[in-house]
Amino acid sequence: MRPIVAPLLAVLFMASVGLAAEQPQTTAAPAETVKEFIYKKTPQGDLKIFVHLPPDWNASDKRPAIVFFFGGGWTSGTPNQFLPQAAYLASRSMVTARADYRVKSRQGTTPRECVEDAKSAVRWLRQKAGELGIDTSRIVAAGGSAGGHIAACTALVEGFDAKDEDKSVSSRPDALILFNPVVDLTNPGEAAGKASVPPSREAAREISPVLYLKKDSVPAILFYGTSDRFFAQGRAFLAKAKEVGARVELYSADGMPHGFFNKSPWTEITVRQAEAFLASLGYLKGEPTIKPPAGATQTLKREQ
C-alpha cells in the first residue's frame, strides 16, 4: 500500500474526470490520508482501490464507509471521477473509497465483469473492516451512470461473485447513493448508447436492478437531471420501490442532462442531499460543511 497525504481543499480542487472548472466549496479541514491497495487480481490485471481515511482515524474505529464506482458506459472511466465526493465525506468522518474495475476499452470486458468487480470491492471492504476501522453494518455503495448501475447491482442482483472469493463475507452493501444510474438494461438501445451490453434480453434481465427490488432491499437515494434519457428509469425504479415497500428517494434537477452532478453547484447540492440521507440512517451527524457557490439558486426536487 502507498500512503498519500493531502489537504482536503487541495484534493477538492484537483482536476478529475468529468469535472468542470467550477469545484466544490468546503470549509478547511485537516489533512486526510489516502492509501492505495490491490483489492482483486483478475486475468486482465490487478484492480486498485483508493481508501480515504479521516484525519482522526484509528484502526480500532467502527466508522461508516462508502465505495464509489465511476461512470463511463462500462467502457471507460477512472476512479478519479468521485475524488471530490470521497475527500469531502472523509472529512465528515467516513472511511471512503474509490474502486477501479474492468471496462471494455482497457480489459475487453462486458458489464457482467463490471458487476462482479463491484461486488468484489464491497466484499473486500467488509473483509478489511478490522484494519480500516469500518463498521460492517454501515457500508454504502455509490456511483454514477454505469458506476451507479454496478453499485445498485451489488445490493439487488444475486450471483456474479468471483469464484475464488469467500462468499461467507457478504458483497451486499447496507445503503445506496446513485447518480443518474442505469437501472434497466432490457432496452439495449436506451440503456447502452455506444457501450457494450448483454447480447440477449435474458442476459440483460440478470443485471437489471429494477427487476429485483423487494421490501427488504437496502435504502437508496437516486439523482437525475430531468433532461437525462435515463430519468424515466429512475421514476420506474421509484414506482417499483413504492409498490414493494422499499425505501427509495429520488431527486431531480430541472433541465439538467446526464452527468450534471459532476459540475458545481450540482456537485455540492447533490452531496449535501446525500449527506442528509446518510444522517437519516445514522451514518453521519452534524451540519454539512460543503456549500454551493455564493449566489447559487439551483435546487433539487424530490419526486413523489
| CA-based gyration radius | 18 Å
Query: What form results from the Cα inertia axes?
Result: globular
Percent helix among the residues?
25-40%
Strand order of the largest sheet: 1-3-4-6-5-7-8-9-10-12
What is the number of strand segments? 12
Mean pLDDT: 89
Low-confidence stretches: 1-28
Order of helix and strand elements from N to C terminus = EHEEEEHEHHHEHEHHEHEHEE
Give the count of helical stretches.
10
Taken as a percent bin, the fraction of beta residues is 15-25%
CATH class category name = Alpha Beta
Structural class: alpha/beta
**CATH fold title:** Rossmann fold
Oligomer classification = single chain
**How many domains, as an integer?**
1
How would you characterize the overall build of this protein?
The chain is α/β, with parallel strands linked by helices and 304 residues long. It has a single domain (2-302), classed as Alpha/Beta hydrolase fold, catalytic domain (Rossmann fold, 3-Layer(aba) Sandwich). Helices cover 30% and strands 23% of the residues. The protein has 10 helices and 12 strands. The protein has helices at 8-12, 83-91, 104-107, 111-127, 129-132, 146-156, 188-192, 201-206, 231-244, 266-280; strands at residues 2-6, 25-26, 32-42, 45-53, 63-69, 95-99, 134-144, 175-179, 220-225, 248-253, 290-291, 301-302. The strands form 2 sheets. Strands 1-3-4-6-5-7-8-9-10-12 form a 10-stranded mixed sheet, sandwiched between helices. A two-stranded antiparallel sheet has the order 2-11. It is globular. The N and C termini lie far apart (45 Å).
